[in-house]
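Narrative of activities, Objective 1.

The group set out to show that a structural description can be obtained from nothing but a protein's sequence at a throughput compatible with the screening campaign. Below is one input-output pair from the validation batch, recorded exactly as produced.
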Amino acid sequence: MVVDPGQLRLLALIERHGSLTAAAHALQLTPAAVTQQVAKAERDWQVPLVIRGPRGATLTAAGALLALHGRTVEEASDKAGAELAALLGHLSLRLRIGTFQAAALHLLPPALTALRHRHPDADVSVVDVVSGRGADEISAGRLDVAIVASWGMPLASSPHLRAHPLLLDPMVVVLPDDHPLATGQPADTELNLKQLRDESWVSILAGHAAREQFHDAAREAGFTPTVRFETESYDVAQALVGTGSAVALVSRLALTHAPGTTHRELARPRPHRQLYAVTKTDPSLTPLADMLIDLLRDVARDITATWEAPLQEEEQRSSKSPHGAEKPPVLRGDQ
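Output recorded for this entry:
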């Protein structure tokens, strides 16, 4: 026989309150509905369960036995509800973040500091994730927010994921500090890749989107780069440039100012990568995750402002004609 927990709970309430009417009130049902449920229970169990009298209702021995188990059902239900509430409260304060090195160094710390000030009881964890795996970790439910990068192409679309744009991270040229292009021109001079066609290069490993973007940019500039060193790390690339052996394209966010190196901006249109915060699209996104994304955007705006400030100052200086009249502003496509 299949046991109906609702019948067990009903009998426990009748025993506790001593009447069908009071049990009906506790269940927010009509007395007639409770009477029908009792009748059904007696048919199902094939035994009398309730004795009705002028002063209320009492249970038969069979009814009392089932009521005992009904109290156990009630206790288990109350405990489950309390534990679920505690779990949901914990989940609303839990934030699992995946990120890659440059974002972990520059984007995430200010955002997490602000988040901690607002929610000191937040349960935050951070794990290094290869950028290409971040979306997969979100889909699998192992992360709540993943900071990822895309080189020149939008992220693959998914109906279950949402990409929140954070930062446009331009590529810059890292040169040995005694390189002619580093010593013979002002520091704010923008270089064209054509000027570097005869150089030896440090590049990200073949097969990576950054490597493909680099070769595409070189092809558009009319040359095939001579790659002497390959690495998976922008840090290693800059250290190798510091030996004087090669030059490299490195993301602006990943600049380390390694000893023996300097960097120059590229002329526009310059290669870049787009940074995103990836989340699920379903309502499981917590307010804490929403807040983190807003804070990451604030940090990204501040970083972009520090990058653009020297360029804006130079543009303001060059916008003056010899006679003091201002030239029309130049609108740049990626600003």
